[in-house]
Structures are given as C-alpha cells and as structure tokens.
Write a structure and sequence with these properties.
about 400 residues; Rossmann fold; alpha+beta; six-stranded antiparallel sheet; four-stranded parallel sheet; single chain
C-alpha cells in the first residue's frame, strides 16, 4: 500500500465528500447501487503493483499451457456445454488476497479465478468518481492503458465487427442484478442493448429478439449469465437456452466460466497460489484440515464456502470431486481507517484483444472487508468496507 497517499486521503476525507461522491455515482449511472461502496480507493504502491502484474503474467502463462487447456475441457459439466468453438478466453479475472509474507511485506495470493467478464465499465466509472470527489488524486492512474485506447479496444472486442444493433448483453432478469450498473455503463459505451435471456428466441438455427415490433437477428452475445443462476431460473427459458445449437458468436464463450475456475487451482504451481487439491484426492488423508477452506467448484460470490473443515465434513460430501480444499490464508489488515484496519482483495481484470499473444491487464477491482468474508454482501453494517478500485501513481505504469 502507498502509505503517503493513505495518510493524505484520510486527513482530507469527510463524510460530506463521501456522500456527494455516492450521490454523483447514482446520478451518473441512473440507478441505485444495491451494494456498499467503500469510502476509499486502494492506493497501490509501485512495488505491489509490479508484483501483481508479475503474478498475473505467471498464472496466465500456466493457464494457457496446452496440458492445462486440455484438462480444462473436463471441467465443463455435460449439461452445461455450449455448442460452438470456445475460441480464446477473451476476458478473465484473477482474485488476489493481500497478505503479509514472513518479512511483513504485503504480497498477493490467488484465491479465485474466472474465465468470465467482470465489471470493467463500472470499475472505470467508480475510479473516475473517486478522482472527481477527491481531486488531490485526479492524476493517479486506474487503467493499464490510455483511457481512449481501452475504450476503443473494449468496444471492438465486444462488437466483434458487428453493428451494435446485432449484439446484445445477455443476463437473467438484468434489472434486478446487483451488477446492473455495469450493464448500463457497458450499453452507454458500446451502444448494445441489455436483454434478458427470456427475450431471445430461435428460428431456423439463428437467434432473434423483438425490438420496436421488428424481429432482429442477434449475431453476437456478450454473455453475463452465470450458470449457477441459470439452473435456478428455468422459467426464463422461453425460446432460447445457451446449450441450443445455433449460429451465434460469443464474447467469452460460456464454457470458459468452467474451464478457468476453481477447477484450475489444483494444477497451478506458483508462490502466488496457496496449496489446493480436490476433495477426492487421496492426499487429503494426510492434511491438517483445519488449515484449509472447503469450496464448491461452481458457486458464486462465496456461497457454499466452509471455513471450519473436518474429516466428517469431507466424508459427508455427496461428490467430493466437485469441491476443492484450499490452504487458508490470513488477509493482512493493511488499510488504515478511522475505526480500524481493513483487509483487501484485488481483482486483476484482463481482456484478450484482437491478435495479441496473450490477455492484457485492463483495470482492477478491489473489495475491502473487516469481517471473515470479503464480498460486498458480507460487510453491509460496517464502514470503510465494500466495493472499491485500485489507484496508483501515474508514473508507475503507462
């Protein structure tokens, strides 16, 4: 953490500035935000930013190894396989907990990863509003490339050469999703429409939607549907399901949600990745289970995670191959706030543009916590916690 920036921010902070900041986000986005936004951005030091970038590069290089890409095909449940070539994982996210190493230095440890679009446009809006509310930091960076460059690259990636009318952002009941603010920002920046999966239907092997009384063909889908939720909402499958055989392009093919996921963790070997094994691995017998966290392979936003694990819990799993055991890490209390220190999780968000050799870092997502769980929904009744974004000295990267 950048300690000088932290002291400066804390000294200049007032509740009135925070209130104006929140009001401005609501006004600019045109929607109410259903989760807590933290009072502060995360000021990332030169050293930590470089470590995060190195960690991301090392992990992504392993994800893209032929042996791991081949293994990842096994991760997709038969009932969830989506037809069509998977292509490249055009968007992915790496979630790092910030911890202390033996020398009390702050270092990242990978706890989750996903081959799925994240909140690119909301995070950009959030960073801009922090800098407007606290102009002392207006010259700090929040993107890994120039603003105009990333917007154009993201627009090209999402549209794929199609007219915006031919591309849709697809979700389940999007207006009632916590991430609706990101959908709105995506639509504003790309010109595409936000649709519920129930609005789509199939004719002669193609996907259509009705807009203004006319049936319009959908050539490309920016998929924001999470299969965990999809299986719980069968009433929305009116004319189209992702597993239908249709002619359509995907922005991040849905299979990557499984192929780059917790299923991948046991195959990664890095100082940045805590020891992880499948719960059905024979080596589980020799583990001190109290040192591990039990996680279902396919769950979202921390659901189903067990922090206190014992052999009885493992033995009662119906299908232990669908769970991992991950060595516990202790988040570092590294952000000083008026009522104690907050813990931090940093999501490094990547996009794979055009003919690039590998994905590029675009922006960060940060979550501040003072409880046992880090997700924004677990910290509703605390201050200086919740949704945030990383800022760094503009001279560091760019």
């Amino acid at each position: 953490m950048d300690s000088i920036a932290r002291i400066k921010f804390n000294n200049e902070f007032t509740e009135e500035r925070y209130r104006i900041f929140l009001d401005d986000i609501t006004k600019s986005s045109g929607t109410n935000i259903p989760f807590r936004i933290a009072e502060t951005p995360v000021f990332i030091s030169t050293e930590l930013l470089q470590i995060l970038l190195n960690a991301g590069k090392e992990i992504i290089s392993q994800l893209l190894l032929p042996i791991n890409l081949e293994r990842s095909l096994e991760a997709v449940p038969d009932a969830c396989k989506v037809p069509g070539a998977n292509g490249k994982p055009t968007m992915l996210a790496l979630d790092f907990a910030l911890v202390f190493d033996e020398g009390k230095n702050i270092v990242p440890r990978l706890i989750e990863l996903q081959g799925f679009p994240s909140l690119f446009y909301y995070q950009n809006l959030l960073a801009e509003k922090y800098k407007e509310a606290f102009p002392e930091f207006s010259d700090w960076s929040h993107l890994f490339m120039e603003d105009a460059v990333w917007k154009e690259k993201m627009r090209e990636l999402i549209l794929g050469g199609h007219h915006p009318e031919e591309v849709v952002l697809m979700e389940l009941d999007p207006r009632n999703q916590n991430t609706y603010i990101d959908f709105l920002e995506t639509a504003r920046n790309t010109g595409i429409d936000i649709v519920c999966i129930s609005e789509l239907f199939v004719e002669n092997g193609f996907i259509y939607r009705n807009k203004n009384g006319l049936n319009r063909k959908v050539h490309r889908i920016y998929n924001r549907v999470i299969f965990d939720e999809l299986q719980k909402r069968p009433e929305l499958f009116k004319g189209f399901h992702p597993t239908n055989h249709v002619e359509v392009e995907w922005v991040c093919h849905p299979d990557w949600y499984f192929r780059i996921s917790k299923h991948t963790l046991p195959f990664l070997q890095s100082e940045f990745v805590p020891h992880t094994i499948f719960a059905n691995d024979p080596a589980v017998v020799g583990l001190e289970l109290s040192d591990y966290v039990l996680k279902p392979l396919y769950s979202f936003s921390g659901s189903g995670v067990e922090l206190e694990v014992d052999s009885k819990m493992i033995s009662e799993l119906v299908d232990p191959s669908q769970y991992i055991l991950q060595r516990k890490i202790e988040y570092a209390p590294c952000i000083q706030t008026p009522d104690g220190y907050a813990k931090v999780e940093i999501r490094m968000m990547y996009a794979w543009f055009g003919n690039d050799d590998q994905p590029s870092p675009v922006i960060t997502l940060a979550r501040l916590s003072k409880g046992a769980m880090v997700g924004v929904k677990y910290n509703q009744n605390r201050s200086w916690v919740g949704s945030s974004v990383g800022l760094w000295d503009a001279a560091i990267y760019g």
